[in-house]
Amino acid sequence: MIKAKPIFLVALLCLVSFTGCDDDDDDDDTMPTTDNLILDISGLEDLGSDYAYEGWLIVDGSPVSAGVFNVDGSGNLSQTSFELSIDDIDSATAYILTIEPSPDSDSSPSSVHILAGDFSGNSATLAVGHSAALGDDFSSASGGYILATPTDGSDTTDENSGVWWLDPAGGPGAALSLPTLPSGWEYEGWAVIDGTPLSTGKFLTSTGEDDAAPYSATTASGPPFPGEDFLENAPPGPTFPTDLAGMMVVISVEPDPDNSSSPFLLKPLVGSVPASATDHVLYDMDNNSIATNPTGTASR
Asked: Looking at the chain, which terminus has fewer C-beta neighbours within 10 angstroms, N or C?
């Protein structure tokens, strides 16, 4: 009986040892609770210090923040990998990218949705045309413009100093065919004069006045269409009246609220005014959507 005691102790030690090993194996089998969402997006622009981009996962029909990032002047994202709850990543049905104030006190997405995509497998292809973004890729947008200065009344000496998006043959009629924008977005017209973009005003429809006339004269009213005469209150650089022949006119899509006094990255219509352009002649614009629409993927 006395000699059997060491054997019992050895067996007991072995049992304790194996039990400890089993506990270590349980620790090693602990499942991770987070994973990385990876973004690969091109075509975004620097929003300045007052705004930032924020991603959102749609989980069980509700938005879950998927990280905030900025973009530099070369279009590079400040962050492309975001550590998130693995349950949210695995359950997400879509990814949406918004523009948010910075800093942002609201934990919900803004109305300014710029890209979105549905997950198919482990990735979502992001596009402006997704129904959760702008809802249209602007590939069917078209338009034209005339040069004229209707706000200076009967003066016809400076007719090439104004641009109006109207068709004179239509009585006049609308010269722009643009999709309806969702909440959070507006159209804006521009004339680029000697390299300086000057706004002609913001608008939502191709008929009716736009929201501003900072450079027009006050002698007469402008027609009920988007446009502007460049006759008064010239900013530093350009001289008014001017000649828009050889210049460029643009229709952009702007976030609301707007992050900049310059055209936003979405420029679906661009027109190079002919060097020999004359007033009251309808000139066509080119569709520029493929060149300016951002694209990308979100991968899990």
From this structure: N
